[in-house]
């Protein structure tokens, strides 16, 4: 989907301490035996270790970087609304790996890159309208791996999410670790993330504030149900996602449901052409929201897009939101 935070240096230090650099654990050679993984509830066998992976979007790309797998990548696609990439934990990865497209991936991108694996997700690259799907790529002889946050759950034709968001993150890191032979690196990263999240969770206020995630939209807001990353970013930080009952990941709801649930705090997802400041001005001036607690008390917090989609930045986002929640209602 969308955008990047200019700096996450605390996370960078955590990852360095976790030993995610390429010198920690050499990846498998191409002669290794086949690997079978469970992806979106299906067993998938990869006959060889991929050498030319192509990724779609920032969170997916940084999962590869966090595991030190830049040398296994042929390129990535993402819009150019990502802020300053020089301050991110994986600057070297962005410098080393080719930026294939400032839009979503296409079959042409993939074929031109001679990709031997496409790592994307539903609405994070894979989409029916353009025919860029795992099935279509398999017909071209190109294996795929689907981001677990985006797995379709069968409740509707397009609803997504099959497990809690952090478990989706840990599942993908574990699977990628197995596929590329960097299991220890993945396990160390996951252990560090679990410890970081637990430390924030333990500080959660006794009275948990209600939080609404605002991505975009004026006629109807685009937000997070219980299967997208904001669900656990909010809950582990010490709040309650007011859209927890929505059995989907990223989806549209009605403003009336926001008003009815009366959130204490609104979290803005910052990305794209509409700045966080413009989104904030809209929320504060939108008449139907005037009596909502978060608007009345101007309790609005901003996180970046990459913080709020499945990515190795999720634990850092939990820590930052947790610090805000602990002070917002004093």
From TrEMBL:
Q: Which CDD domains does the protein's record reference?
A: TroA_a
> To which species is this protein native?
Streptomyces lincolnensis
Which of UniProt's keywords are assigned here?
Answer: Lipoprotein
What protein family is recorded? Answer: Belongs to the bacterial solute-binding protein 8 family.
Matching entries from InterPro entries are given as: ABC_Transporter_SBP, ABC_transptr_periplasmic_BD
Any keyword Kinase? no
- Keyword Lipoprotein present in the record's keywords: the answer is yes
Q: What is this protein's record name?
A: Iron transport lipoprotein
What Pfam families does the record tag this protein with? Peripla_BP_2
